[in-house]
Specification:
- The chain has 187 residues and is an alpha/beta fold.
- It has one domain: Aldolase class I (TIM Barrel), CATH 3.20.20.
- 32% of the residues lie in helices and 15% in strands.
- It is built from seven helices and six strands.
- Strand 2, helix 3 and strand 3 form a beta-alpha-beta unit.
- Helix 1 packs parallel to helix 2.
Length: 187
Amino acid sequence: MDGRYVPNITFGIPVVESIRPITDLPFDAHLMIVEPEKYVEDFVKAGVNMISFHMDATIHSHRLVEKIKSLGAKAGVVLNPATPVNTLEEIIHFIDYVLIMSVNPGFGGQKFIPQTLEKVKKLKILMEETGRTDILIEIDGGIKEDNIREVSSTGVIIFVAGSSIFGAENPAEAVKKLKEKVRYIEV
């Protein structure tokens, strides 16, 4: 977060560099910034494996997807709650994943917007129509123990859960409980 695309600021490349050596887990960078093309190379060098960006934050989204992939990372596009799925029609053939925001980006602890589940269904239809059923679906915002089962049943396979984990008394137990609730389906 850069304080421009969204009103908040969050950690960046130095934090990624400092934690990359302690885990082999994949790192997913959701760039809530303007002109993300200026920073993707540094994020990949720091150890990020997946990079998603908001199409309205860059002028040349296809060029940016190609740049991310040429650096060896997976490329994703983010849909805000008010961004329609059909905005993906021209880029869907080139991306690896779609991140659906189930809150308005910029602040943690927001309430899940249930209508975003309809967006997931529309995305699945577009994926079928374009033959891109290999695209991963990620969701971010308001993911909690009481909604993760329903969300996972739509075909979402990557969940961003911030406040429900880091706001918990025991974050490790919170992760365990979320994982237990996920409904695995064939995608």
